[in-house]
Amino acid sequence: MKNLTITVDDGVLEWARIEAARRGTSVSRMVGDFMADMQRREDAYERAYLAWRTDERTWRSSAARAPGRGGPRSAALSRKASA
């Protein structure tokens, strides 16, 4: 593993130390876990985006007209439109 040096506000560091103690871990481990989680999310997003971009399906409807609901008003409207 490699070391990483970061700069944070004093209040943020104090919160991180308390939170790490509450979780039974270290600030270093929390930062490492956070970065690993971000990497997994970014990789998953990238895979989903590429899958979407290469998806061959189309959502266009066929040339045939979609069927109506078949109610009396629908039939009346169809007769009016053809007149």
UniProtKB/TrEMBL annotation:
<feature type="region of interest" description="Disordered">
    <location>
        <begin position="61"/>
        <end position="83"/>
    </location>
</feature>
<protein>
    <recommendedName>
        <fullName>Ribbon-helix-helix protein, copG family</fullName>
    </recommendedName>
</protein>
